[in-house]
Specification:
Layout (H helix, E strand, L loop, with lengths): L2 E2 L2 E2 L4 H14 L13 H13 L7
Antiparallel strand pairs: 1-2
């Protein structure tokens, strides 16, 4: 299993990432994230981790 800066990649990594994309496309607030993407807090934390390392600025 690959290990990232924040530890092992969770099994739901793809679902959380899709939740981040859904959040931007829909324009809703974090707590309105559908449960199919996991807990809203996990989706938010995934976004925050990526934002903190500058992933969004590389695009």
């Amino acid at each position: 299993m690959p290990v990232g800066e924040y530890g092992p990649y969770p099994e739901r990594l793809r679902q959380q990432f899709e939740g981040v994309i859904w959040k931007f496309r829909s324009g809703t607030q974090g707590r309105e994230t559908p449960e199919r993407f996991g807990a809203w807090s996990a989706v938010h934390n995934r976004f925050r981790q990526r934002h903190d390392v500058g992933v969004s600025r590389r695009c």
